[in-house]
């Protein structure tokens, strides 16, 4: 008989024939008479490859998250023009929030004074800002853009602001309109409230000399779908002189694949003035107008693959997801930092577990409830002092309801996630999520309607027993903490009789 021979076989193929990337299988056996006898299989763990994030994502500029205590007096900063300073004071704004006094000078410093060209001929660095809702991001991008454009002598479309939904576009438009008052700047809004033909008349004018149509606005606030409409069908709509592209709620916009709007935009901007080229001696000597991108969101993605679509130039990230004392603990297993999703410091967050029979499915979808006071929450479902805001209601009516709420004419707004992103509703003290949020981003934007601008606020999420485990896992994965809140019968007792009276009156 042949002498046994020792064999070692290394394989990463599992028993079913599939490649096992998580292990390296080593088999040690003996060959006897031409047959190999294998003993038990031993697996050795192979370390998972960790993704290396770009340097600008790993080492951001940290924005102070303590809005209440880290404000700067308006008169103590020199980068704000006298005209804008006066307008801010007129609007009862005497201090700048951290995101404002850190981001505004960075945008202003990227431009040569009284010129739209960048310093040293280098393309300006794009700005990305991830900060909690209500931290003042809208003024952080609107004020420097207005201040830089108001010195221009000719009318060209130089700033484009893109937002995911029409209601949010209207809100941002009002901010630009307010702070450009007293200048020659013309701000326009195209969000579908007017017909396409009416918007076309507003966006273009006929040149007295050439008799050709040309752009009649300096700043345009729009939505992705409407932007594509005007690029495709509006004669004289010219984006070749665009200097600033501002994407607010950028994570939501990147999910918007409607009409492939980003491809349309890039071709409209670069086809005539030339596409960006690598930095060389020749490119530095050219006088090409640079396009600077400003990205803002409370839940800004750190996924490089998604951000790659925007072709960012030497981007700089401002984020308040961590404190300055903390190190950047990067979770390489996901697409975000540990602690990426943050909520305002003044926000108290709770979840309430209730029995399934007590949490009935409403006849119409209800996701979020905004209330003036915690007490009004207890009867919001049946009280006469509440209003509904949903996609079935006209934009004009939604605006009226928000105005009534701000003026305390109504105490409660019952809505879907339509209003859970970006919209600034005054004096919301309590947010109630009746439906469990499906994603962490949805939760962040829901609860972010309260505790804005350094004010206190409360957020409650109502869950049944089956929803608690998923909700807690979702919150934990984002490095957040939400406390459980138990509601006893004695707490509800004062409202029982009132609820019965209202129900009886409605029968």
Automatic annotation (TrEMBL):
One of its GO terms (molecular function) is hydrolase activity. Its EC number is 3.6.4.13. Residues 1-25 are annotated as: Disordered. Residues 118-318 form the Helicase ATP-binding domain. InterPro entries: DEAD/DEAH_box_helicase_dom, Helicase_ATP-bd, Helicase_C-like, P-loop_NTPase. Gene3D superfamilies: P-loop containing nucleotide triphosphate hydrolases. The keyword Amino-acid biosynthesis does not apply. Signal peptide: none annotated. Belongs to the DEAD box helicase family. RNA helicase. This is ATP-dependent RNA helicase.
